[in-house]
Structure formats: C-alpha cells, structure tokens
Design brief:
Length: 319
C-alpha cells in the first residue's frame, strides 16, 4: 500500500497528543512524499506550528458532539479531502463512523468503540501490558507502515520567532544572567495523582532563597488558582501563569535549565526540546509512571517526596 493522502486523528489532551508524535514520525518516514494531515483539538494546534511531519491540520472544538449528526458532518468534511488512509489513535465512535461514511479505503485503529468499522485494527491491551504510551501508539501506526520495533523519539521544533519571543519574555521579567531559571509547573488535571501545590511553592521559594531563579508556569485556567499563592512568592520567583502562549511554550522550556512538574503535558514538551525534568507524583499514580514517563535522558521521578529531596536533586542536576 502506498497512500498519498493520510489523515491521523488524536483528539484528546496535550500529553496524549505528544505521545502520538513518534508514531506520526514513523508514518512520515515510511511515506515521505505523502500529504499527512492531523486532526486534533483546536487549542493544541499552536503547539505543533512548524512541525515538518504534517502538511496541514484539521481541528475540533469542545462542542463537536458525539451523535450521528456530528458523524455525518465530519464524514462530509473528510470526504471532501479525499483521504485514502486514516489512523485513529484515540478510539471514538464519532471518528470511526465518520471515517467509514467518508469512504476512506484504509481505516486503522483500536478494536474498540465501533472498531468493526475499521479495515485494520488491534485490541487495546494497555490494561494488561507494561509498555510506554508512545509504544502503544507505534503499534497502531504499524498497521499502516508495516514496521515494528521502531524506537519512539519525541521532538518539537520551536521556530526562530518563538525562541526570540521566549527570550524577550524572560528578559522582560528580569532574567538576563547566564544561569538559566528553574521552571515549576505545579498543576495537574487530576489532583489525586499530583504532589500538593503548597509543596511546589515551598520548593520554589527555597530555591530562590538559595540564589536559583524560578519561574512558575501554567495556562489561563490556572490563573484563578494562582491568586491564592501570588502573595506568598519569594523574591526571585516570577509568576508566568497565563502569560506563555502555547506556541512559544516549547521555546521557553528550551531556555530554562530544568522543569519540576506534576505528571502533565508540559513535562513531555520539555522532554521534546531536551530539557531535563523532575516529575513528582502521589503514591496512587506510581503504577502509571512507566507508561507516561518522559522520553529521553535526564529525567527523574519522585513519589510523594519532601521538598528537601527535590532541593537535593536540583543541586545535583547539571542544569
């Protein structure tokens, strides 16, 4: 099979999307001259600006719906694009049905949520195996590429413009020295799996007290949460919550020395630009660490640590 117009679908959260990029890279390498489109959440498109693996993006919003009418709308849209292959990385009835109704000849994905509408599928065995999430996505990609045992590698491509914007933002906040700041991202979509936010801010203040500059990162949704901590920030801790657009996040994380974070999407963004990370989690999240750990070298995990343990880890980091 030699498809020339390929659609990849990954419509869930940031971390899930990033864990699919190595699989997308394997498809690009297998079909270097094909037109490859990615369907993803509208808010995440900015993260992939400049990625050479994709020719174009299709986006979906939070109000797409899941019923038959939504599938019919998407089927019409997909049919107009004349795709000859689609790989659905996160199974949904919506896009399984839409791909079928659009008449896309090759349809691959997991054998779940109306997976019988696919032409090639594999069972979802994540509950019974211990692979990295990116390896599961590589298995799905292999339905199209026919290639197995390809080591997943994650990389984002900050543009020169985004790097200049990140530098300007840091400079405007007083970071102009040779020592790069430590970035701290204390938020998580699932508080039960995370380290207490208070502990992150204690660590930030103690790092700054020891002379290490610190930036606090977070999205627009965390701005109200940050209000409870803003008055407690030590000197040398800079609040960037809600001030870093997604399109410059990879560039900014490339310019910090280290990211300390709960297990969340920014961890994988940092890993994609070769910035070391310290990832903390609660004991309840420990069984999932192997599946969701950042790809590459220079990353450390801690389960319910004390701030003292993190401070020691930072002191030993060549960053």
């Amino acid at each position: 099979m030699n498809p020339q117009n390929i659609l990849l679908i990954r419509t869930d959260r940031m971390g899930d999307l990033l864990m699919t990029l190595p699989a997308a890279r394997s498809i690009r390498n297998r079909f270097p001259h094909a037109r490859i489109s990615l369907l993803l959440q509208e808010e995440l498109k900015a993260l992939l600006t400049g990625d050479p693996d994709f020719n174009t993006f299709l986006t979906c919003g939070p109000r797409e719906g899941q019923g038959t009418f939504a599938s019919l709308r998407w089927a019409k849209r997909l049919k107009s694009q004349r795709f000859d292959a689609v790989v659905v990385f996160n199974p949904t009835r919506l896009f399984h049905l839409a791909s079928f109704l659009a008449g896309i000849p090759f349809r691959a994905g997991y054998r779940r949520k109306w997976g019988f509408l696919l032409t090639r599928s594999i069972p979802d065995t994540k509950a019974s195996r211990d692979l990295h999430e990116s390896e599961y996505q590589m298995e799905v990609a292999s339905l199209l590429t026919g290639e197995t045992n390809v080591a997943p590698k994650l990389r984002l491509f900050p543009s020169e413009v985004s790097c200049a914007q990140a530098q300007a933002l840091l400079k405007s906040k007083g970071f102009s020295g040779s020592r790069r700041p430590v970035a701290i991202h204390p938020w998580t979509s699932n508080p039960a799996k995370g380290w207490p936010v208070d502990s992150f801010f204690e660590t930030a203040n103690r790092l700054s007290g020891a002379g290490r500059p610190v930036v606090i990162l977070g999205g627009r949704m965390e701005v109200p949460l940050m209000g409870a901590f803003r008055g407690r920030l030590g000197r040398g801790v800079v609040d960037l919550v809600g001030q870093v657009p997604l399109e410059i996040l990879p560039a900014l994380l490339k310019q910090v020395g280290l990211l300390i974070s709960n297990d969340s999407g920014p961890v994988h963004v940092a890993a994609s630009v070769q910035t070391p990370t310290i990832v903390v989690a609660s004991k309840s999240h420990a069984p999932l660490i192997a599946r969701w750990k950042p790809l590459g070298a220079g990353h450390r995990f801690f389960i319910s640590p004390t701030p003292e343990e993190l401070l020691l880890a930072v002191s030993r980091c060549a960053c």
